[in-house]
Amino acid sequence: MGEKNQTQVVEFVFLGFSGIPNSHIYLFLPFLAIHLVTVMGNLMIFTLIQLDSSLRTPMYYFLSHLSFLDICVSSVTVPKILVNFLYQRQTISYNQCLAQIFFLLSFSGTEAAILAIMAYDRYAAICKPLHYSRLMSPKVCTILALVTWIWGTLYSALHTALSTTLSFCGVNQIHHIYCDLPPLMEIACNNAHINDFVIHTASFLVAGGPFFFIILSYVFILSSILKIRSANTKGKAFSTCASHLTVVIVYFGNGLLNYNRPSAGYSLEIDTLVSTMFCIIPPMVNPLIYSLRNKDVREAFRKVLESQAKAKHHNTMN
User: Fold this and answer.
1) What is the model's pTM?
2) Cα 29 from Cα 144, distance rounded (Å)
3) Helix (H, G, I), strand (E, B) or coil at 53
4) Nearest to residue 191, comparing CAs of 226, 213, 167?
5) Inter-helix orientation angle 209-226/231-259, to 10°
6) Comparing 166 with 301, which gets the higher pLDDT?
7) Are 309 and 63 in contact, with CB atoms under 8 Å apart?
8) What's the CA gap between 217 and 211, in Å, rounded?
9) Which of 93, 97, 102, 316: disulfide with 160, CB 3.0–4.6 Å?
């Protein structure tokens, strides 16, 4: 009976902004602008790291992974949202919904792990400077990057597999604007206690684990920085951590707001907007943070612009 009920639902209808008249008119351009800024900003960071030899260090190696992940996270949700706004039809097929959940959880889980590895990189650079080249060798960095991607993929595969066991008994209206596990479980008609238990357990490990690792890393980092006597050296040490710390606060702050806010007291539209922030705000602001706060990235960008200007001038002279 459960299989029959599940196959009856071939598509889902999003109700996220259904209470806003002509929402497609007011929301299409802002979402499009956010997506374009996200893709172009992260693509700029990724390209700079590949082009500038001075940025070929472990920290920027993992930053390139972070930029790629931010493009992926935004591309999993926003293009479908834009298409629905454009055609004024807030739907998604059952298979597309599962695919969206799989890739969203995979990229989000990997991003949390990458942020933890970046904290470890700062710990190794500041607390173990004499052993840094060994602790963060190219081979170690490659292995760590591979582990983070496997980490996110396994986490996502587990949840997506459990999602296929949900039955919906003909109910196909999701109180959201994209497919995510909590709103999907809300409309399931079969017992989802196992899913709920696994979600909370796995989320604690996949999100909470990296977060507590980051906190622990910065406890050691702060302890080491405070022991430095030179104010100039101390300032440089704080500066190398500032961008990463800001990104961590934005990412985990939005995640906390998305999954742990009160269940009542918000309209559906506000609730949907708050949930959507988790997928569109961190990917958009991360390249801005690293561009504005990181001197190395700004310098690399300046050098690329000067190189392009010289090449253009040379071509003009010829």
Assistant:
1) 0.86
2) 38
3) helix
4) 167
5) 160
6) 166
7) no
8) 10
9) 102
Tokens 């292995």 sit on residue = 143
First to last CA, the chain: 76
Q: By C-alpha distance, which of 123, 64, 84, 71 is closest to 245?
A: 123
Cβ-contact 190, 163 below 8 angstroms: no
Pair of tokens at residue 187: 């409309």
For domain 2-317, say whether CATH 1.20.1070.10 is its number. Answer: yes
Q: Which residue, 306, 251, 278, is CA-closest to 181? A: 278
As given in the structure block, the two tokens for residue 124 are: 């190794």
Instruction: Tell me the chain's radius of gyration from C-alpha atoms.
Output: 22
Encode burial over 123-150: b for 16+ CB neighbours within 10 A, e otherwise: bbbbeeeeebeebbeeeebeebbeebbe
Query: pLDDT at position 212, please?
Result: 92
CB contact set of 158 (below 8 Å; sequence gap of 6+): 198, 202
- Residue 276 · residue 38 · CB < 8 Å: no
Whole-number Å distance between alpha carbons of 228 and 202: 39
